[in-house]
Amino acid sequence: MGALEKGKLVVGPEKLCVPPIPIWTSFTDGREVFGIGTIFWDFDAPNIHIHFSAGRGKEILMGCLRKEARVYLVIEAFLIEVTDINAQKQYFDEIGISMLQFNEKE
Q1: Whole-angstrom Cα distance, residue 63 to residue 55?
Q2: The pTM is what?
Q3: Residue 15: helix, strand or coil by DSSP?
Q4: Is the Cβ–Cβ distance between 65 and 9 less than 8 Å?
Q5: CB 91 within 8 A of CB 98
Q6: pLDDT digits over 35-54, tens only?
Q7: Beta-carbon neighbour count of residue 63 at 10 Å?
Q8: Residue of 88, 97, 89 whose CA lies nearest to 13
C-alpha cells in the first residue's frame, strides 16, 4: 500500500481464451495503491505476482501489476511467511502462464 508515480498493469484478458491475451493499460499521474501478492519460487528465481487497485480521484484501475512501476513517496509491504508447505510456480506452455503448484510434502 502507498502511492505509485506510474505503473503498467493488465486489466483483463481480451477474451476468454487460452492462452490469454492481456489488455494492457498504464498510468503516469500518481495514484494511491493497495494490493496483495505472492512470492513463490519459479525454478531458481522468485516469482512475484501482485494484484492491486490504483486510484486517483474517482478513477480506479484494478489489475495485475506488471513490467514497470515507480514509487511516489512511499510503498509499505507486509510480508507473512507461510511455512510447512511445498509449493512453487510452474510454467505451462499449453496455456502460456506460470501457475502455482502444490506438491506433497517430502
Answers
A1: 12
A2: 0.80
A3: coil
A4: yes
A5: yes
A6: 999 998 887 888 889 999 99
A7: 21
A8: 97
